[in-house]
Amino acid sequence: MDDRNRPNYFLVWVWLVLLVILSISASLVLPKAAALFLIFLVAMIKALLVVMNYMHLKYEKPLLYALAIVPLLIVAVLLFALFPDFVFRS
User: Fold this and answer.
1) Separation between Cα atoms, residue 55 and residue 68, nearest integer Å
2) What are the pLDDT digits (tens) for 50-78?
3) Alpha carbon distance 90, 84 (integer Å)
């Protein structure tokens, strides 16, 4: 991988920090259901940022890319399946 294809690690790190701050502020300001939805959404975005930039999947062949995306989709399905349990638990 040459220098022009190398990701800007500092900019990715700044985005990750901003997304963490967004998650924390959402838990303090928003109602519980909306906060949980936003926190899970931000977690998926952060995971994609890490996978694409730090694991360098942006530059890999499509088969390896698909092998990394399938578990992420399974996690997303499980998160949305368990979301009502988190929200409506007394």
Assistant:
1) 10
2) 888 877 767 667 777 778 788 889 998 99
3) 11
In angstroms, rounded to a whole number, what is the distance separating the alpha carbons of residues 16 and 7?
Answer: 14
Residue ranges of domains in the chain? 3-88
CA angle 10, 16, 19 (to 5 degrees): 145
3-state secondary structure of 90: coil
pLDDT at 9 over 60: yes
Which pTM value belongs to this model? 0.62
Whole-angstrom Cα distance, residue 65 to residue 42?
Answer: 21
Return the number of other C-beta atoms located less than 10 Å from residue 79's C-beta.
Answer: 16
Q: What distance in Å separates the CA atoms of residue 82 and residue 74, rounded to the nearest whole number?
A: 12
pLDDT of residue 4: 63
Question: Which two structure tokens, joined as six digits, stand for 32?
Answer: 């519980």
